[in-house]
Each structure stands twice: as structure tokens, then as C-alpha cells.
């Protein structure tokens, strides 16, 4: 798969002396959904602003669809659509006028058939004549996406796309984003909702204090860093954990009625079988059991805490 965005040695230091980005290197693959995760102030919006040509880098280079975002600004920017966090539109303009005007800003010839298709795709067609001030927050967010897609870009940036929308609408928007990807649009999103990245992303990047900590395929990241837990409900409570089980570092809960075993399945392939064997040898009965694995949120928090401790 070829890259559609390439970021090389990117740095951004403001006149105040604050460094927002440090030697960022990142390749976004054509046709993927890429999620950029990081705490507030990590540099997510700064990175997007530079790639989209809104802010200038202090050092490094960025290309979009092969065009340098500084030397070939117009060509690079024509390939990119941006949905910012802020909902900034003319309150008295109609939905149709808002989206159509945005297309004209990029020098695109009028194409009412495409605008109609876009509004239908985003469930906005029945609101085409409504003024922006009449719309709900979720509908305004859809209009912002329509504006970003009005000039038919191949790359779409979504900066906190579901901020302030309810859970049902958030899931509708996830489906919409998948549909855009199926139409060949490359999606890059930043989000505070970890489940959003876990639900949609093909690859995930983690940024903190202006530095990229890692970039991994979602499942590879969870396989590499995620731990599993085995929860055992015992037939009889234990007053203490037998010495024969010391190697498992079991946690006892609810006055010895439950045991919890945390492990890495990649490194401890036979440890569960060995645990069951020793439990049987010790005469410890199991009434019920269940297993779980780390969520992306737990992995993200763990990563950020590890870097903070260094």
C-alpha cells in the first residue's frame, strides 16, 4: 500500500519558545483510516494544521499526494478536506449555499449533481434549504463534513469529529466515515474517544509532548501491549494463596472467593493450562470463570504513563 501523506523530520517552535512538535516522522497509507491519539496539548491539532497548510512548520517536510505542502501549496491543499473542531459557519446561510460556496473556494466548477449526492450521503438532503442556525449540533457537524468534501478531496482530516454529539449520532457518523473510506477517501482522525479509534481505525498513532511514541496496526498494537485476565470464581474461599501458586502472582478478591490472573498470552502460552493443573493438585475447585483482555484505552493510558515516568 503506497503512502498518500509523508511527514519527515517535522518540527514546530513558536516565537514564545514553546516547541509543539519535535522531529515527527509519519506515513499515512492511501485508503486507510488512521487515528491519532494523545492527551490535550500533545500536538495533534498542530500537526493537522501544518499538513493542511494552516500553520507553517519550523523544520521538516510534508507531502500530500506527492505535492509539497509549502512549495506546491495549492495542489497539495486541493487534495485535502478538513473538518475542524469548531463549528464555524454563517448562521443565516442555507445548507446548500454553505456547501456549494465551499466548493467554489477551491476553484471547482459548479456541480449540483455532486452536491446533491454528497448531501444525500450525509443525510442532509431534506435540510438543504434550512438555515445553519436552525440545525442541531450533530447536523451542523455533518454540514462541516460536507463542506470538507465539497471539492472532492482524496484525504479527509477529522479533528475530534464527534465532540459534543450523542452516542447514537456518533455511531451513525462512524458508519458514514467507513462509507467514505469505501469510496476511496483516506481518513485521518484525532479523538478523545478511545472507543472511536478502537471501532474504526486500521492503524493508530500515539503522540505525546510533540513526539510520536509509536505507530502500529490496531490489532498488532493490542496483541503487543494488551494483557489478558482470567477471573476465577472458586467453590470455596481461600484464606491464603498456596505457595505452589506463587509464580502466577494471583490477586485474591472478595475474601478469597475470587482469583484473578493477569498474563500475556504471547509470552505465556501454556501458563493457563499449568495454572489449572496446579489448582487441581491443590484441591481448589472452580465454580465459574471468564476472561477479558485490555482495551485500547487501557493500553493508551499505560503508554502515556510509561513515557511520563522516563
TrEMBL record:
GO molecular function, one term: ATP hydrolysis activity
Record-annotated membrane-spanning stretches: none
Domain ABC transporter stretches: 5-234
Record Gene3D superfamilies: P-loop containing nucleotide triphosphate hydrolases
SUPFAM superfamilies: P-loop containing nucleoside triphosphate hydrolases
Keywords: ATP-binding, Nucleotide-binding, Transport
InterPro entries registered for this protein in UniProt: AAA+_ATPase, ABC_transporter-like_ATP-bd, ABC_transporter-like_CS, ABC_transporter_ATP-binding, P-loop_NTPase
Highest rank taxon of the organism: Bacteria
Name by which UniProt lists this protein: ABC transporter ATP-binding protein
